[in-house]
Design goal:
The protein is mainly alpha-helical. It contains four helices and two strands. Helix content is about 70%, strand content about 5%. A two-stranded antiparallel sheet has the order 1-2.
Amino acid sequence: MKDKFKVIITDQFVRISLLLSLIFITPLIIIIIASYNNLPPLIPFYNSMPWGEERLAYSNVTILLPIILLAIFIGNILQATIAYAKYVLVARIVLFNCFLFLLLGLLAYLQILFLTF
């Protein structure tokens, strides 16, 4: 697996996607750690719901966001590493979509913070 990962890193598009993914996931984890103690017990987590109690969730839910994003990040790296030998374009698309997903996760959490404070 290490040899396959070394091969995938040589691709510049893949390397940029991985770097940008790390750039977006690192501040997300830092922001969550820094702001977790200041969060109220209930936060507006479900932004697609109408205003009211249905929109609120306990602040403990914010811990799940980086865990889910890290799992998706690692899963996509594994999928791209396996697929790269046969389907270079598929591996690039998977890693670019991973980057976009992490960017949207960061923006969603920032929106939750701005609605909370």
